[in-house]
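Hi support team,

I'm opening this ticket because the web form for multi-chain structure prediction keeps timing out on my end. I have pasted the exact lines I submitted so you can reproduce it. The total is 901 residues across two entries, so I didn't expect it to be a heavy job. Is there a limit I'm missing, or should I split the entries? Thanks in advance, R.K.
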Amino acid sequence: MFEGLSEKLSAIFDSLTRRGALSEDDVNAAMREVRRALLEADVALDVVKSFTDKVRSRAVGANVVRSVTPGQMVIKIVNDALIETLGSEAKPIDLDAPPPVAIMMVGLQGAGKTTTTAKIAKRLAERAKSKVLMASLDVKRPAAQEQLAVLGRQIGIDTLPVVAGQTPVQIARRAEETARLQGYDVVMFDTAGRTHIDEPLMEEMAQIKDAAVPHEILLVADSLTGQDAVRLAKSFDDRVGITGIVLTRVDGDGRGGAALSMRAVTGKPIKLIGTGEKVGDLEDFHPARIANRILGMGDIVSLVEKAAQTIDAEKAQRIAEKMRKGKFDLNDLADQLAQLDNIGGLGGIMGMLPGMGKIKGQMAAAGLDDKLVRRQRAVILSMTPYERRNPDILKASRKKRIAAGSGTKVEEVNRLLKQHRQMADLMKSMGGAKRGALGKMASMFGMGGGMPMPSPEEIAALQKQMGGAGTGAPSEPKIPAAPPPGAFGPPRMPGLPGLGGRLPGLGGGFPGMNPFGGKKK
Amino acid sequence: MNDHDTRTDAPKRPGFLQRIFGRGPDAPVAQPPEARPESPQTRSPPPAPREGEPVRPASGPAGIGIAPEPPAAQKPGWWNRLKAGLSRSSASIGQGIVDLVTKRKLDATTLEELEDLLIQADLGVATASRITAAVGGARYEKGIDAPTVKRILAGEVEKVLAPVAVPLAIDAAARPFVVLVVGVNGSGKTTTIGKLAAKLRDEGKSVMLAAGDTFRAAAIEQIKIWGERAGAEVIARAQGADAAGLAFDALTAARQRGADVLLVDTAGRLHNRAELMAELEKIVRVMKKLDPGAPHAVLLVLDATVGQNALNQVEIFGKTVGVTGLVMTKLDGTARGGILVAIAEKFRLPVHFIGVGETEGDLEPFAARDFAHAIAGLDR
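Hello R.K., no limit was hit. The queue was backed up. Here is the completed structure from your submission:
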């Protein structure tokens, strides 16, 4: 959702970083642009003002460290200020209370409360192994209770049986009692949508709160909300004291101003973000990473974590073993391609890499998309197991058959084979280079022998390698942690700038990325 | 542009008066959706009497647990409600203006702050700058009082909005007149369809509904309840069914039964999801097979709380399915209708209706003058 803003900001900073020295006027001019960009991203005006003031005063007072351009300094300061505004650390949902832990969802009509309720319930059931009961207190919108019941059936979460004619407060009491008597760990209250100036409904919400005694009260808010986000969040917070915010529709192309504003005004953390229509589309909110994304510096850490989660550790070990022996057959390539798909496809990865905003557009224009990855998988799947293990035996007639089987052309089969060969060679050489950054990256992605999942230290080390691009504690006194050259500003090469030097592991860890290499020629 | 005004305003005036009861916007608005059956007829101004008023059968929505309504919940007039809704933005703008110009002369700082105020109402940076410039104009460095600034502000806003305040014209030649309703998730499409169905029924038209949101859980039940309330037949398939196929069926059925209007609901979709937009395109394509003119109107439903992103929504939905008009919902709440000004300026798309509540009657034709005055914090 942040692409628009990040493009704008990177253009502003691009002109800034090219300068050798910065005057106060330069900073002021840049801040005016930042102000406008943030306003166009729907960040609330007050928040924008305090933000630019903060940055300006720091930027003017800061000592420019040798070897860092003043522009880079400003970026660093903006980045830190962004993180502060978004909240310094991720705060997950807190279940630390005697069961049944009550979670109450509040928000405007159409914010996505019911869908989010189901998403959170599923998440808690899966990750925290909680027994969850969902209750709809929405007696206003037609079929709202039915909606939650249907969702519950879909995801296998119990919902409170509907008793017609009960008031929301009565339903809340009944839900609490049911949860207590039947031994549920968590009980979720999905309330009706209400506008924050609708006094009777706000009063009703307060009564529900008194009846349900929720441990968490989550405000569900649309990330596409405009300037109103602030008042909205404030009114709900004043009235019932929300404990956190869930942002929905983050997969839209809004610029995410609501995230900045609501956090800044209420001081309440954004706990989760909804990233799609499917029940699994819910993610933790990491302020530092979002700040990085807003600045267009990418979200390396997110990428690594996501990759680590998705990549099956055992499989990775097996591949690593083969890699060391220089044996990396087409089965492994197919696995890698499948994993790439799981992580969110090329588009998903590109979104998390630094300065990729523009590249993404170019990729789309060049027709480089996930279909390519899927076609490559199709080619491999059209081979016999024997062929996959021994690609060398593939001659013209076999290739013709494979091309026909996968609906591609022989050239595409050839291209894939060539890529596979190059990758196998690369992996063989990487297998030895375990100490260097290369080996480290490989182990990050579960490729190395000893470390199937990256430990926190590893991630920290990676961050350092990335030039401490803002994910460190913002209050850290040692200022600039020089941003890696090339990590800022729009990449100038059509390829994958920054990747070559900074993320060598991608070349090896994600052989699936090589389609770029293939296409570039 | 003034014709629009008189046209949209004139027939409504008695309605307002009728509906402005003693209750201020602060009085309890206990009005669950189906407050209508028992509520006094006076609160619905349309001249056409509601024939065949569907008294909700006991087995109906109550089955899925909708609270019994307190009897005879009166509603304040929509103007009051619109104003109450807009009041937050009008109050802040209005108060801001008073603060601004009573203190000093109209100088650059004042203008900048005025621009900020407009930005806060979601008018967007470009529109806010333009209006500020218009306010600045010849009055620079002159003492200027708040009501004047308000009037100028209202005038500027109205100037932008008046050309787009166009009612939805149902062409009687097209039978059925197909209205496709699109929008992002949660913008209020289904509710708008329910309200629109009731409105058209009151105008004496036969209406059919197509439950095209086959994705969201219970969306079909929701529109069925609305259909029941409006006495309109609902064509539905199971959840997960192909929406385009359903649209085809619905259009076929509407033709057979000679319905005047077919309202086609769609699943909410974010405009940047290419695959979902393609699905929407398919719905249109399929309907065109039966009737090359269909859909005769494509309404994009926008949520009043939305910020600058609404511009993207209008643009992309417009490109994909040829949006012919807008409906802005939830103006009773947060009510910074400001984005509508920016949209009007950029796209000049008609704004047909505004939604100001959750009950059937809460859909009103869009009136530029009222809206502009409400935004500027002026009385009518």
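A quick check on our side: The longest strand of chain B covers residues 297-303. Let us know if the file doesn't open in your viewer.
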